[in-house]
Amino acid sequence: MTALRKTTLALTPEAAPFAIRAEKASDVAAREALLDACFGANRHARTCQRLRDGRAPAEGLSLLAVSQGRLVGTVRLWHVSAGGIPALMLGPLAVEASSRQLGVGAALMDHALAAAKARGHRAVILLGDAPYYARFGFSAAKTGELSLPGAFERDRLLGLEFCEGALDGARGMIVPTGARLPKTRAVRARKAKALLLPRVA
């Protein structure tokens, strides 16, 4: 019997199972299909979607994970006011089911947070599972007095400060402050989403 030999593989960018890059206009259909697969067709009714509808994501903070030319993950950040305090809202973070063991979600988070910090943003808020996002520094320590425009679970509203004290005194409603999409773009986006929804006979 031949003994199995352990080898260590150094993942260079060429050998890596996926790469992180900025989102492009041509990625819209693939991104929407991935989001539908991850969250279901009713994802547009979710509370946080109200902070994104008709708004552009924060500049430079729409990232994708691509494997062999195929989109396998996505994350975006959006400008909001957290009870009068400027912040970013992260989401949705989505990873294709077959790629979830590759560390795609963590890589997208690391890249997105590093990019947000480099651009001078002071804080990020999200709605998600505390045990997962705690590894990136998120907690509910300063979000207890904040609200969202719809139903949400209090312990899932989490915040991360890049600058100490950035969320001090944050209370009240989280509202969108990002640039509004031109009407034609917003209508086109809604039509694209409609085309991607499964047809029911």
How would you describe the overall organization of this protein?
The chain is of the alpha+beta class and 201 residues long. It has a single domain, classed as 3-Layer(aba) Sandwich (Aminopeptidase), CATH 3.40.630.30. 22% of the residues lie in helices and 24% in strands. It has 4 helices and 9 strands; from the N terminus they run βαββββαβαβββα. It has helices at residues 28-39, 104-118, 130-133, 183-196; strands spanning 19-22, 62-67, 70-82, 85-90, 94-95, 123-127, 146-147, 157-161, 172-176. Strands 1, 2, 3, 4, 5, 6, 7, 8 and 9 form a 9-stranded mixed beta sheet that branches. A hairpin with a 2-residue loop joins strand 3 (70-82) and strand 4. The N and C termini lie far apart (59 Å). The model is unreliable at 1-15 and 194-201 (pLDDT under 50). GO terms for molecular function: acyltransferase activity, transferring groups other than amino-acyl groups. Keywords: Acyltransferase, Transferase. This is GCN5 family acetyltransferase. It comes from Bradyrhizobium icense. Residues 18-159 form the N-acetyltransferase domain.
SSE order, one letter for each helix or strand: EHEEEEHEHEEEH
Structural class: alpha+beta
Please name the CATH architecture: 3-Layer(aba) Sandwich
State the helicity in percent bands: 10-25%
Mind describing the biggest β-sheet?
A: 9 strands, mixed
Assigned CATH class: Alpha Beta
Question: What is the CA–CA distance across the termini?
Answer: 59 Å
> What is the name of the CATH superfamily?
Gcn5-related N-acetyltransferase (GNAT)
Question: CATH topology, what is it called?
Answer: Aminopeptidase
Spans where pLDDT lies below 50 across 5 or more residues: 1-15, 194-201
Number of domains: 1
